[in-house]
Design goal:
Layout lengths: L3 E4 L4 E4 L7 E6 L10 H19 L3 E6 L6 H10 L3 H18 L15 H14 L2 E3 L5 E3 L39 E6 L2 H5 L11 E3 L3 H15 L4 E7 L3 H16 L5 E7 L2 E3 L2 E2 L10 H6 L4 H9 L7 E3 L1 H23 L10 H18 L4 H20 L6 H14 L7 E5 L8 H4 L7 H20 L3 H13 L2 E5 L5 E5 L2
Parallel strand pairs: 3-4, 3-9, 9-10, 11-13
Antiparallel strand pairs: 1-2, 5-6, 6-7, 7-8, 11-12, 14-16, 15-16
The structure holds one RNA strand of 75 nucleotides.
Length: 501
RNA sequence: GGCGCCGUCGCCAAGUGGUAAGGCAGAGGUCUGCAAAACCUCCAUCCGGCGGUUCGAAUCCGCCCGGCGCCUCCA
């Protein structure tokens, strides 16, 4: 079994064969940092996270680049309104993006190049295209890419260029720029006073201006993989489906025209959209949900990850309260198992143990699922089946083998969908009452103090149970539940205290 | 108008020619002073509709119905 991925370029699932294994160069289109990234953005980044983790788990040596678009129309507009530079505008959003990324347990890329830090390579790229005659200066001073000079144009999006309905999206007007051909795209935009006002203009041999949107990805990718590996072709390029056209189409055009290579990236992977209650997120509908909103609502990252991974990355995903609740409960169950499994003592390797077959099934099914174009829903199903069987064996007090632990850990490492409890404490059957003054009605904020508080109450309850004062015991249970604690009694009178907050 | 996707259990969602994974919810049970957790059993003879191809179709083809995306700067 080997990894196969759906390649937008060929519209087929292809065996994954990197250009120079075990190295894999991975370029991901990142956020435009003029606002907080929303859950739709993060769905795409989670798909990339899964790809990254699975490539590494499969033994590849991945070099992962994710760009940050820190200069574009919206950023310039916002900076102008706030009378600040684009750099000052963007900084807090970059910080926020990294915070959100960490919150969602997304493995950081190796580099996060910012467009404004790569203006020199961009200028070289534009100059190269001018020299080759595929780019031209418009009368407005901007530089455009002439798609008529690049026969392969349209290969990725499979759009017949003659059929493009100009302005069909309603987002632009055809006469917005001074172009030879309506489908030509801008490489370098001549500087306007608004750009100068927010420090979004650079000198170039072909005129002062700023980069067009598509330019940065080509320039940064070529620069970074060129420096590091002396190559001009990426193994994988990722993004959301909306980037297929025109963004990625244009990247290919300008990159390949510049390098003379047939490919800019060997594999193009695109993640589908996440919608909210049936419709696309947009400012117009006022239905933008950010990662911070999830955090504020107390949604555990594992729950959100599970929700995302329970749908294949090439299928649209509808975010609803019910779906989120269901995923959170699933993540909780996986987390409870993970905690339990972590603390279970292990036997020596034993091929005759019932764990042996379980471990093998999990490892095989998990790998087969992800190798099949990152079929995460199937991989998740394998995890759940393992958890059910494993819980049964643990219930029967059959200790797991090292192989079982290894298999589960690998799954947990790639998916990270198990929501472990904040904290747990053991309450002995013989627990003694604490000093009544130490009990306290107020639940402390500090996590350790919280657990201490709940433990003392649990001890109080244990003594109440011993004296068969069940009314008091139940009262304490209710009070602990309200504070976010779950108490699991055992037959022997001991109990486990779980912090669910 | 062009390119493309989807419609599978109450909800979510795999499966894309060989006779329906998984999750959540629900019902019953084991355990239990109670309550959880965990486990066991049950929960789609059927995959939007109608035709067709085939020994065999949720899976292929056609038509219809319904939902959605992209078509120049949105992940």
């Amino acid at each position: 079994m080997a990894l196969a991925l759906y390649n937008t370029l060929t519209r087929r699932i292809e065996p994954f064969q990197p250009l120079a294994p075990p190295r894999v160069t991975l370029y991901s289109c990142g956020p435009t940092v003029y606002n907080f990234a929303h859950v739709g953005n993060f769905r795409t980044f989670l798909f990339v996270d899964l790809l990254r983790r699975w490539l590494e788990a499969s033994g590849y040596d991945v070099f992962h680049i994710m760009n940050l678009t820190d200069v574009d129309d919206k950023i310039i507009k916002a900076a102008g309104e706030r009378r600040t530079s684009i750099d000052d505008l963007v900084k807090p959003f970059i910080d926020a993006f990294f915070e959100d990324r960490d919150y969602l347990r997304i493995v950081p890329a190796h580099v996060y190049p910012r467009a404004t830090e790569f203006v020199e390579p961009m200028i070289r790229l534009v100059q190269g295209l001018l020299d080759k005659g595929v780019a031209y200066r418009g009368e407005d001073g901007s530089v455009y890419f002439g798609i008529a000079r690049f026969p392969a144009y349209g290969r990725l999006s499979q759009l017949d260029t003659r059929e493009l309905k100009i302005g069909a999206s309603g987002r632009t007007s055809a006469d917005e720029y001074d172009k030879d051909n309506a489908q030509d795209f801008v490489l370098w935009k001549a500087a306007r006073p608004e750009d100068e006002a927010v420090s979004a203009a650079w000198d170039a041999p072909f005129g002062r201006g700023r980069p067009g949107w598509h330019l940065e990805c080509s320039a940064m990718a070529l620069e970074l993989i060129g420096q590091r590996y002396q190559t001009q072709v990426l193994d994988i390029h990722t993004g959301g489906v909306d980037l297929i056209f025109p963004h990625h189409e244009d990247e290919i055009a300008q990159s390949c025209a510049f390098t003379g290579q047939d490919l800019f990236a060997k594999y193009w992977l695109h993640g589908e959209f996440l919608n909210i209650r049936g419709s696309k997120m947009s400012k117009r509908f006022g239905n933008i949900t950010t990662a911070r909103d999830l955090k504020a609502d107390g949604v555990e990252p594992a729950g959100f990850r599970l929700l995302v991974f329970q749908t294949h990355y090439r299928q649209q995903l509808d975010l609803t309260d019910e779906a989120l609740t269901a995923a959170r409960e699933g993540a909780r169950r996986l987390g409870d198992f993970a905690d339990r499994f972590d603390t279970a003592s292990v036997t020596k390797p034993d091929p005759t143990s019932p764990w042996a077959g379980l471990a093998a099934t999990l490892a095989n099914e998990f790998a087969a699922a992800l190798d099949d174009d990152l079929n995460a829903p199937r991989a998740v199903a394998a995890a759940f089946e393992f958890v059910r069987e494993a819980n049964r064996l643990l219930d029967e007090r059959i200790a797991p083998t090292p192989a079982a632990k290894t298999a589960w850990d690998a799954v947990d490492r790639v998916l990270a969908v198990a929501h472990r409890a904040q904290a747990r404490a053991e309450i002995a059957a013989s627990a003694l009452d604490a000093d009544p003054a130490a009990l306290g009605d107020q639940v402390p904020e500090d996590p350790a103090a919280r657990l201490g508080w709940a433990s003392r109450w649990s001890a109080r309850r244990a003594t109440a149970k011993r004296s068969r004062d069940f009314a008091l015991a139940d009262q304490i249970r209710v009070r602990l539940k309200e504070a976010g604690f779950e108490l699991r009694d055992r037959r022997d009178g001991s109990a486990e205290l779980v912090d669910r907050r």
